[in-house]
Every structure is written in structure tokens, then in C-alpha cells.
Specification:
Its EC number is 3.1.26.4. One of its GO terms (molecular function) is manganese ion binding. Keywords: Cytoplasm, Endonuclease, Hydrolase, Manganese, Metal-binding, Nuclease. About 35% of the residues lie in helices and about 15% in strands. The protein is α/β, with parallel strands linked by helices. The protein has a domain of about 130 residues: Nucleotidyltransferase, domain 5, CATH 3.30.420.10. α2 crosses α3. The protein is globular and about 55 Å long.
Length: about 200
């Protein structure tokens, strides 16, 4: 895991969580880490235990030069599609950083220019660069907290466990109970998409 080190520039890393979910927002974070930041545990959030994600979240928030997290909600996802919503979430997180930066590194292979700041897309960047990994941790933990909160409103979908992803249990609950205001209506909510009452 590398720190994107260049003495001349300040780098912001960004990543999103929840792109493949049937319910809930897509959430992005942006993080600027100190150039000497080191952490042996920090990695792509999907590879880490819940305990380590929570521990890293507090360490990142305590040590980052700046960080921000933003949600893009279901109505906007349905309006502009999930790819555009994911990029919008990353743009909003970058916009919310309270520190100037000269370069952006993005997890994945798709992005749109942001404020004329040079950027680089890095496939599997959350396993290669610490600022992207840190962003993945903050995005995932923040989104998970949101899904656990709305689970209390609609426990039949078990969002506390599946976080809105298309598990068999989640799809079965949609088939039995229909959908909620938290579901993404533009997504294929059931495998055959026969009938869902909106």
C-alpha cells in the first residue's frame, strides 16, 4: 500500500460505496492524508473486518489533513443513473474538503473533470493507494451506518445485514412486501422484474 508521494503536490483520494445496491444511497468520501502517513492495516474496505473498518475510521478521521463524506440518494440515482450518481457523490465529497489540493486519484476507471484539477483513475486503487483506501473506509462505514438506521424502519429487508445489496433474502422481501422509498426504482429489483407496485 503506497502513499501517493510527491513533495510538490497535495493529493486527494476518492472512492464510493453502494454502487451495486438495490436500496439506499451511493456514498463517496474524499481524503487528504499527510505525506508521512503510514498504516499497516489500511486496505480496500471490502477486504477488512467490521472491527478493523471501525478502528480505521477513527484513525483516518483523527489523522487526515481533510476528509469529507457525501450521500447521493435514490431519487437522484434514478434520475441520472448510478454511474453519474457515483461520480457526483465523489465530486461533492471533493468539493466539501476544507483544504486545497492539486491532484485527484480515483478508484476505478471512470470519472469526470473536477474544477480543472488533474486526476488519475486507478483500477483497484483502494488496494494500492492509502488515500483511496481511506476514502473507501469512510464511504463504506458511513453508508453502512445509514443502512442500519433505516433498517429500524423496515426490518423485513434486513438492511442491517445486507446493506441494501441484492441478496436472495433482500429480493425475497421485495417480492413479498413490495418496495419502499429507499429502493432504487431504476434498478432491476427482481431477477425477472415481473411486477412491483411503485
Amino acid at each position: 500500500m503506497l502513499n501517493f508521494y510527491n513533495i510538490e503536490i497535495t493529493v486527494a483520494g476518492t472512492d464510493e460505496a453502494g454502487r451495486g445496491c438495490l436500496a439506499g444511497p451511493v456514498t463517496a468520501a474524499a481524503v487528504i492524508l499527510p505525506k508521512d502517513f503510514k498504516n499497516e492495516v489500511l486496505n480496500d474496505s471490502k477486504t477488512l473486518s467490521l472491527k478493523n473498518r471501525r478502528l480505521l475510521k477513527s484513525q483516518i478521521e483523527a489523522n487526515a489533513i481533510a476528509y469529507a463524506v457525501e450521500h447521493i440518494f435514490m431519487e437522484k440515482i434514478d434520475e441520472i443513473n448510478i454511474l453519474n450518481a457515483s461520480i457526483l457523490a465523489m465530486h461533492k465529497a471533493l468539493q466539501s474538503l476544507k483544504f486545497e489540493f492539486d491532484h485527484i486519484i480515483v478508484d476505478g476507471n471512470r470519472f469526470k473533470p473536477f474544477n480543472n484539477i488533474p486526476y488519475e483513475c486507478i483500477v483497484k486503487g483502494d488496494g494500492k493507494f492509502m488515500s483511496i483506501a481511506a476514502a473507501s473506509i469512510l464511504a463504506k462505514t458511513s453508508r453502512d451506518e445509514f443502512m442500519e438506521k433505516i433498517h429500524e424502519e423496515y426490518p423485513v429487508y434486513n438492511w442491517k445485514k445486507n446493506k441494501g445489496y441484492p441478496t436472495k433474502e433482500h429480493r425475497a422481501a421485495i417480492e413479498k412486501h413490495g418496495i419502499t422509498e429507499y429502493h432504487r426504482k431504476s434498478f432491476k429489483l427482481l431477477p425477472d422484474q415481473l411486477k412491483i407496485d411503485f
